[in-house]
Amino acid sequence: MTLTALLLVGGLSSRMGRDKATVLFDGEPLWARQLALLRELRPETILISARAVPSWAPPNVAFVLDQPPSRGPLSGVAAALASMQTSHLFALAVDLPRMTAVHLRKLAGMAQPGQGIIPLNQDRLEPLSAIYPREAAVVAQNALASQDVSVTSLSRELLRQHLLKEYVLGPEQAAFYSNANAPEDLR
User: What integer pLDDT is reported at residue 51 of this predicted model?
Assistant: First the structure.
């Protein structure tokens, strides 16, 4: 398995009131924290998905920009799948500050040739911390061209086609998927 890592930072951050990527968690901007986690996976390539290159853009990291109009996280996932040269894409949202490198490595270790992994958190899929196989690129492009641009809908279709496999999270892992959408979520 070869890996491209994708950090998704393109959200509007309306509930946070400012760019989530720059919000501090334990004294570190969320973008830097998540990028460090992805680097621990030792991917062949790291990409950052955004609507436009942000002012905080780190050097030596490539960006995949949403094609206007942005269709949310699906835009970034589809663009990364279309451009990557590896067998799998590990997508990670910037707003999961409690995620750990140990957990990400566990997920990466479960991917198989032609099949990725998507966490199932109780009854909710976690498509913004999932591993997608290269074979998902066409399905993602079709989803991007459709009316339903939900990454959850994409994930359900990939599960149906056996391009993704569910990984049921235990109660101790659920906290890793706690989103930071508003300032009070960071406490």
Answer: 86
- Please name which of 93, 81, 94 lies closest in space to residue 45, comparing C-alpha atoms: 81
Residues 6+ apart with CB under 8 A from 18: none
Homologous superfamily of 3-186: Spore Coat Polysaccharide Biosynthesis Protein SpsA; Chain A (3.90.550.10)
Predicted structure pTM score: 0.93
- Name the residue ranges covered by the structural domains of the chain: 3-186
What HEC string does the chain produce? CCEEEEEECCCCCCCCCCCHHHCEECCEEHHHHHHHHHHCCCCCEEEEEECCCCCCCCCCCEEEECCCCCCCHHHHHHHHHHHCCCCEEEEEECCCCCCCHHHHHHHHHHCECCEEEEEEECCEECCCEEEEEHHHHHHHHHHHCCCCCCHHHHHHHHHHCCCEEEEECCCCCHHHHCCCCCHHHHC
Which residues on neighbouring strands pair with residue 3, listed in sequence order? 88
pLDDT digits (tens, 9 = 90+) for 106-138: 999 999 999 999 999 999 999 999 999 999 999
* Whether the Cβ atoms of residue 107 and residue 119 lie closer than 8 Å to each other: yes
